[in-house]
Design goal:
The chain is of the alpha+beta class. It is built from seven helices and eight strands; from the N terminus they run αβαβαβαβββαββαα. It has one domain: Peptide Methionine Sulfoxide Reductase, Chain A, CATH 3.30.1060.
């Protein structure tokens, strides 16, 4: 497996304190019920979902290990095209959230199942404008529905989880429909897979992939789908 050039890794490490903090409390995966409602099945073989749950390195890494996911791209959503840049998003003043665009085959894995993974292992949906060691609106918990049906399913699922009190405090995940997605810089793509020993990845994100394997063995796949393989 090829790795990013040394200069890029040094650059990313230097930015870690501003974007993805190294040592702080981890998010903890938990067993949660599946959504009572899901997006209706049809004949389409490809759908797209868009999630934000803290630093995109870990969220991307989780979805890359799910059967039926054909692509997972780190990027930015919630703001304007002109400000969809790593350094500017890191200011917390652009409206963007670090996000992951997930392309999937709904015949293999449904939107509802992707939501279940999102709330269970990808992040902690009770943390407001932060995630683990990372603070700021760019790390908010957000679902960007790409259709009215996705919006309805996500809204109903949040209500369902709050009703049964799966979490100790209410879910703060927002729904922000109609927001375009802008891919992040190349050196952010596949970051978990390319840098498994990076301190942030090892402490915060590898446990998420392990939790996916443990809690969702029916959809876990050992070999991830990578952006760079395309």
């Amino acid at each position: 497996m090829t790795r990013p050039p040394t200069g890029i890794l040094v650059f990313v490490a230097a930015l870690t304190s501003a974007a993805c903090g190294v040592f702080a409390s981890q998010e903890h995966a938990r067993v949660i019920p599946a959504p009572a409602a899901d997006v209706a099945a049809d004949n389409r073989s490809s759908e797209v979902a868009l999630f934000a749950g803290g630093c995109f390195w870990g969220v991307q890494g989780v979805y890359q290990h799910i059967k039926g996911v054909t692509n997972a791209v780190s990027g930015y959503a919630g703001g304007e095209r002109a400000t969809a840049q790593y350094e500017r998003v890191g200011s917390g003043r652009t409206g963007h959230a670090e996000s992951v665009q997930v392309t999937f085959d709904p015949r293999v894995v449904t939107y509802g199942k992707l939501l279940q993974v999102f709330f269970s292992v990808a992040h902690d949906p009770t943390q407001l404008n932060r995630q683990g060691p990372d603070e700021g609106t760019q790390y908010r918990s957000t679902i960007f529905p790409l259709s009215a049906e996705q919006s309805e399913v996500a809204k109903a699922y949040i209500a369902q989880l709050n009703k049964v009190k799966v979490f100790d405090t209410p879910i703060v995940t927002t729904l922000e429909p109609g927001r375009p997605f802008y891919p992040a810089e190349d050196y952010h793509q596949d970051f978990l897979e390319l840098n498994p020993t990076h301190p942030y990845i090892a402490y915060n994100d590898i446990p998420k992939v392990s939790a996916l394997k443990k809690l969702f063995p029916d959809i876990y796949r050992a070999t991830p789908v990578l952006v760079r393989a395309r």
